[in-house]
Amino acid sequence: MINRLLVANRAEIASRVFRTCRALGIETVAVHSDADAALPYVAEADAAVRLPGNAPGETYLRADLVLEAARAAGADAIHPGYGFLSENADFARAVEAAGLTWVGPAPASIEQMGSKIESKKLMEAAGVPVLTDHTVETATEADLPLIVKASAGGGGRGMRIVRTLADLPGEVAAAQAEAASAFGDGTVFVETYVEAGRHVEVQVLGDGRGGAVAVGERDCSLQRRHQKVVEESPAPGLRPEVAAAMHEAAVAAATAIDYRGAGTVEFLYDPATERFFFLEMNTRLQVEHPVTELVHGLDLVEQQLAVAEGHGLPEVPPARGHAIEVRLYAEDPAADYQPQSGVLSRFEIPGALGEEPGVRVDAGFASGSVVSTHYDAMLAKVVVHATTREAAARRLAGVLSRARIHGLVTNRDLLVAALREPDFVAGRVSTGFLAEHPDVFAGAEADPGAPVAAALALAERARAERTVQHGAPVAWRNVVSAPQRTELEAPGADESVVVQWWGGRDGYSVEGFRVVSVSATAVSLERDGVRTTYDVALSGPTHRAVVDVDSPRGHLRLVRVPRFTDPADAVASGSLLAPMPGSVVKVLVAQGDEVGAGDPVLVLEAMKMQHTVSAPTDGVVVTLDVRPGSQVAAGEVLAVVEEKQ
To answer: Domain named Lipoyl-binding: which ranges (predicted)?
Structure first.
């Protein structure tokens, strides 16, 4: 019997496990790094233990510190969540050796599935379909395209797609280096790449004694950087016979290793042939487990705890309706999904408090939370369950569009556009969906009313800040000679936007719009007979304020451009600025070196992703103020390349 459980994880998944524990009457213990001390999950637990430091390697990946925390807090069981130590067999053994209940599979099962190469051999012996392995020497033109994968990998790292044989040796070497850096294991393998394949996975539950059941399947094909962003259950367009065959193969996989608890068997599905192939088994709870819970009416965390306590497997209820989940990330899709960090000044998602039936929000952050550079950039999972797939997609897009997320750039508008894309609604999804639908990257910048609303709200704020002439209309002039100008820029945009407007006794006037009402928090505009109300949030000093504008067409974040530039803000020509906060992991040049335009100068790492900073022009490196290990802030000058004359 589990009485007090420690979750060896953070943020959203810790909150998720705590929720089930509260319902079951199990006390909870949180562990947290210094950066996470103020996140909601820490306060939700009955007890919390600090892991000094911030980097994963000195906090959540320190098995000794986690075990010491369990001892200090009186925990009798440990749930690993996902990521970090969740698939670490040595940690599982250490937990059991300490006399604690390990809420997960046996260490041997983790090891058997920990290597993609060895697990494929094991699955092939169990009768599970697998893809043929290739090498640099054996691959032929007929095998193209190929994909190189890290054996110990995940999250798209150590993965390369190869379309010409001549590129294969170099891509294998690059994948090996990336895998060694990310996982401490440079082993890679090569297999045929299914171009328009779908990622379909089966949820399994095992009792650890050779018994296992399948709890439906999920489609996780919509991905970016080989990482999932939209997941759903059941998988759309999958014939019942194919789904049943997948379930049977997944149960065979779990049975072959006497699997215990919740796990996922992932398959690559080829819609053209209806064949599927084993990819890997995740020996833990998956990020996307909520869609299975909503469709089948099972609490998978509760089932994990039940099996860990020695209970048997449940009867699996039949699928009911359809559920779709999106992963909301602090990242900029328009800038190659660059991670974002900083303060979430506003983070409100409809349904987060359970007030909307059929909507579920599993979040790790709240308004005012700080998103650090040390961990994954996922903010929350937003899930909708409805009677049909079309209804779920439409409602989920609506929920996201009504969310208010300020302070950081997120992928929210991309998700809304993807959910409303006709091909997605029709179920025509594949792992290449985002690349094949560039239109989903168009955001709220296309709304001409958003900058106008921002400019007028700023004018109202300036009126409120006056110390004299409170009764005078905004922008009042005895003799009007020219309109007022408010210049705004969207972070990452190439050009600023100038809004020209007039103010007088009759209120505001803007060409192309009828100004219905204005305040510092809401602006109503009418254009071509259609009225739209914009919610506006202002922060910072008025002369250079940050403006968040929300409307039914999406969110736009703007920054006011001051009329006069502060000389202290100027940077030297040729300066390479840090695109995000992070740490310098590699410096590829030295001061005085000659470089060409586009040559890599250094590599930054933030939120588990690496970003190369390149020379803007041909020239000489005249300034280089960072070295490996340096922590840098967004916008900090990293180096200066002086252009050749």
So the answer is: 567-642
What's the order of all strands across the beta sheet hosting 133-134? 133-134, 188-192, 146-150, 160-162
- Enumerate the H helices of 195-326 as residue ranges: 240-256, 289-296, 300-308
Q: Burial, 203: exposed, middle or buried (Cβ in 10 Å; 0-12, 13-18, 19+)?
A: buried
**H or E stretch at 577:** strand 575-577
Give the neighbor-by-neighbor strand order of the sheet with 631-632: 609-614, 600-606, 582-587, 631-632
Give the highest mean pLDDT range of 119-133, 459-473, 631-645: 119-133
Sign of the alpha-carbon torsion through 621, 625, 626, 631: negative
Residues 6+ apart with CB under 8 A from 630: 583, 584
Contact criterion met (CB below 8 Å) for 578 and 632: yes
Instruction: Give, in order, the Cα–Cα distances in Å from 203 to each of 7, 41, 243, 494.
Output: 21, 26, 12, 45
Tokens of 220: 């996780």
Is residue 387 exposed (0-12), middle (13-18) or buried (19+ Cβ within 10 Å)?
A: exposed
Burial class (CB in 10 A: 0-12, 13-18, 19+), 45: buried
CB atoms inside a 10 Å sphere around CB 355? 8
Question: Among residues of the chain, what percentage have pLDDT more than 70?
Answer: 97
Among residues 532, 20, 494, 516, which one has the least CA distance to residue 300? Answer: 20
Task: Give dist(CA 540, CA 546) in Å, integer.
Answer: 6
**Encoded amino acid at 278, one letter:** F
Q: In terms of DSSP bridges, do strands 27-32 and 47-50 run parallel, antiparallel, or are they unpaired?
A: parallel
Mean pLDDT estimate for the chain: 91
How sure is the predictor about 597, in pLDDT bands with cuts at 50, 70 and 90?
confident
Whether residue 645 has pLDDT greater than 80: no
pLDDT level of residue 155 (50, 70, 90 thresholds): low
Task: Report the pLDDT value the prediction gives residue 98, as an integer from 0 to 100.
Answer: 98
The first and second tokens of residue 24, run together, are: 């079951």
Q: Using DSSP, how many helices (H) and how many strands (E) does the chain show?
A: 15, 39
β-partners of residue 6 are: 29, 78
Contact criterion met (CB below 8 Å) for 45 and 69: no
Two tokens, residue 73: 């807090």
How far apart are the C-alpha atoms of 232 and 240, rounded to whole Å? 16
Task: Dig out the tokens for 582 from the structure.
Answer: 């992070």
Average pLDDT (327-334) is 93
Residues with Cβ within 8 Å of residue 276, at least 6 apart in sequence: 129, 200, 242, 245, 246, 249, 267, 268, 269, 270
Lowest mean pLDDT of 130-144, 152-166, 351-365, 565-579, name the range: 565-579
Q: Given pLDDT bands bounded at 50, 70 and 90, which one contains residue 444?
A: very low
Residue with tokens 């106008």: 452
Of 50 and 612, the structure prediction assigns the larger pLDDT to 50
- By C-alpha distance, which of 294, 302, 300 is closest to 383? 294
